[in-house]
């Protein structure tokens, strides 16, 4: 049976630390704060105490609120800890899905945190069910732990490698056992994972370098595709579960998802976004009075646009930092209300001006439509929308929350139609070549080191359980046809 298009475990943030002089859980807490942008639906921290027992505290909502409980850290003793920040789409909110997940049925007990999405999760779950596995959550993330538990390999590392070889899709895992911490990255390195070291010798493995900075850890290396990084009291060792690898890291990490102060595979996210903005300006020269960005994710791109075009950069939109995210609201009406509560216009900047509005992406079109209307209501003479990434037409199955083609405005409408829907005076996207040039990864494989499937349909791996559903959707939406208008 084809997999339903669903989103249970998506972007997320992971953080592990080994060998802290003092309580590791507190370090994990600090680190997770820097990863809060990767999810706001839940968070958890697990620590291993002197008796090698796993103790966990987790909850739903924002990290600060969850760990505001005066007893939250009571049982989180020990020099090693593992944390997780959860991103979930509407409908999957239950505490059972909040990580880290614990596995205590074997001699070697362990815990894991995951970022990504497996493309063969249903097949693996079916196989696991037949072996008698009882799942502790709805999340695909636990599959790795379940596979490790049923493996017959002699060593824990052997079991990790065997299990990793059975999984497909995008996965960045950090595992913690009483003897070691492990990082495991899928053969395409679709999700970011980075290793750092603190002055006290503690080793950190986490989703983004901004979390290394937060806990005063120096960058050591990015976890490479197909690698297993092993950290124990003797230091850091590198192993592989497969040599059949090809780096295609998710380009949406650079476009939207990662924090601008992070560096992924040697590329500063902020600088990459500035170049995206500059290139969309160069590709589409336009006369205007002022350039504004949509706070916060497109401010870097808007700066790049302004510098390249010579048009003054201004603060035309203000974000209310205290309104929750709108993207995953279950209904369109709630999403629209959310956008209007989240953003407001600085009228003096906009009134009687020809405005360039830079945003990082258009998914459903809710944000752009609302902002264009707000700017026009504030007296803008014209609004030219410039998107610092290409037209988003294809779903992602590797862990970014854009899985339903029916929800993607770019999959259902031409650029000209989208321009009319969002009521902009003009609309231009960055080209795929421009995106690749802007990110500029030092990688010469056929994908330039990037997954750009959402924009060009070039999935770097087979889609396994999703293929049938995707084919049916794609056929319905004529995704395979060359779209002349979109160029
Ligand atoms: P929409 O309003 O649906 O067109 O969403 C576009 C806005 O959502 C953009 O301004 C992005 O900053 C943001 N965005 C893009 N991709 C995602 C994602 N996967 N999850 C949450 N927000 C996103």
UniProtKB/TrEMBL annotation:
The cofactor remark states:
Binds 1 Mg(2+) ion per subunit.
What is the protein's species of origin?
A: Apilactobacillus kunkeei
A GO MF label:
amidophosphoribosyltransferase activity
Q: What class of enzyme is it?
A: transferase
Cite the Glutamine amidotransferase type-2 domain residue spans from the record.
Answer: 12-234
Q: What EC number(s) is this enzyme filed under?
A: 2.4.2.14
Annotated HAMAP family: PurF
> What protein name applies here?
Amidophosphoribosyltransferase
Keywords of this protein's UniProt record, alphabetized?
Glutamine amidotransferase, Glycosyltransferase, Magnesium, Metal-binding, Purine biosynthesis, Transferase
Q: What gene is behind this protein? A: purF
Q: Which domain of life is it from?
A: Bacteria
Q: In which pathway does it act?
A: Purine metabolism; IMP biosynthesis via de novo pathway; N(1)-(5-phospho-D-ribosyl)glycinamide from 5-phospho-alpha-D-ribose 1-diphosphate: step 1/2
Q: Where is the active site?
A: 12
List this protein's GO terms for biological process: 'de novo' IMP biosynthetic process; purine nucleobase biosynthetic process
CDD domains attached to this UniProt entry: GPATase_N, PRTases_typeI
- Stored SUPFAM superfamilies: N-terminal nucleophile aminohydrolases (Ntn hydrolases), PRTase-like
